[in-house]
């Protein structure tokens, strides 16, 4: 499998800081805004963003975890049953500005499912999407991110992988590889 590193740890750190600066600029004190990380991989990025905003601005941002398992359009079509993760939303989202966070945007189906799952908790005032990597030219549904860490032109047979220390990686990085 051919792998190409498209972001090393230093660039990943800079990119997260830039995304946080954009969020601070657009959301101010975050009193009417909150972050929902999509389980499982978006949660790591959401936590990292909330921590960095606290470091940069001193602002505490409400962060929740959203599982989309039962809202997926392929839920009943898989051979093996999907194992859901835990949804943790310890606050109201009604009339709030919600920032959905995921690591990689590919077909848009995960985000579509996240919208359905999120709406079971109330009707937000506004929804934005933040992704670390946007795989352009690959959408099945018309979903576009509001905040993008890096755009990557990729083909269907390629895969984008984000490696975090929290999941056992020695160095945090983003890889583009050909699937087997």
Explain what the structure shows.
This protein has 180 residues and is α/β, with parallel strands linked by helices. It has a single domain, classed as 3-Layer(aba) Sandwich (Rossmann fold), CATH 3.40.50. Helix content is 26%, strand content 31%. It has three helices and eight strands; from the N terminus they run E-H-E-H-E-E-H-E-E-E-E. The protein has helices spanning 9-27, 41-57, 109-119, and strands spanning 3-7, 33-38, 62-66, 97-105, 126-136, 147-153, 158-163, 173-178. It has a five-stranded parallel sheet with strand order 3-2-4-5-6, with helices on both faces. It has a three-stranded antiparallel sheet with strand order 1-8-7. Helix 2 links the parallel strand 2 and strand 3. The protein is globular, with a radius of gyration of 16 Å. It comes from Sediminitomix flava. GO terms for molecular function: glycosyltransferase activity. Keywords: Glycosyltransferase, Transferase. Residues 12-166 form the Phosphoribosyltransferase domain. This is Pyrimidine operon attenuation protein/uracil phosphoribosyltransferase.
Compact summary:
The protein is α/β, with parallel strands linked by helices and 180 residues long. Helices cover 26% and strands 31% of the residues.
Estimate the strand proportion. 25-35%
Largest sheet, in brief, is: 5 strands, parallel
Mean pLDDT: 92
Radius of gyration: 16 Å
SS field, number of helical segments: 3
CATH fold-level assignment: Rossmann fold
- Known CATH architecture: 3-Layer(aba) Sandwich
**CATH class annotation:** Alpha Beta
* Count of separate structural domains: 1
The residue ranges in which pLDDT falls below 50 over 5 or more consecutive positions are none
The CA-CA distance between the termini, in Å, is: 7 Å
Secondary-structure element string: EHEHEEHEEEE
Q: Structural class given helices, strands, pairing? A: alpha/beta
Q: What is the share of helical residues?
A: 25-40%
Give the beta-strand count: 8
Instruction: Name the shape in a single word.
Output: globular
Strand order of the main beta sheet, please?
3-2-4-5-6
InterPro entries: PRTase-like, PRTase_dom, PyrR_bifunctional
Protein name: Pyrimidine operon attenuation protein/uracil phosphoribosyltransferase
Pfam family, one: Pribosyltran
Keywords: Glycosyltransferase, Transferase
């Amino acid at each position: 499998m051919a792998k190409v590193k498209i972001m090393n740890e230093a660039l990943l750190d800079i990119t997260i800081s830039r995304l946080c600066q954009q969020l601070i600029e657009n959301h101010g004190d975050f009193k009417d805004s909150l972050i929902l990380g999509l389980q499982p991989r978006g949660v790591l990025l959401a936590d990292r963003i909330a921590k960095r905003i606290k470091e940069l601005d001193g602002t505490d941002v409400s962060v929740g975890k959203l599982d989309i398992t039962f809202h997926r359009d392929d839920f009943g079509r898989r051979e093996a049953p999907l194992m859901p993760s835990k949804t943790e939303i310890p606050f109201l989202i009604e009339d709030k500005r919600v920032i959905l966070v995921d690591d990689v945007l590919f077909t848009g189906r995960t985000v579509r499912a996240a919208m359905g799952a999120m709406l079971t908790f109330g009707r937000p005032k506004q929804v934005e999407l933040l992704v670390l990597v946007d795989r352009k030219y690959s959408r099945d549904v018309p979903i576009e991110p509001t905040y993008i860490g890096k755009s990557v032109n990729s083909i269907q047979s390629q895969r984008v992988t984000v490696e975090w220390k929290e999941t056992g990686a020695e160095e945090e990085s983003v890889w583009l590889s050909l699937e087997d």
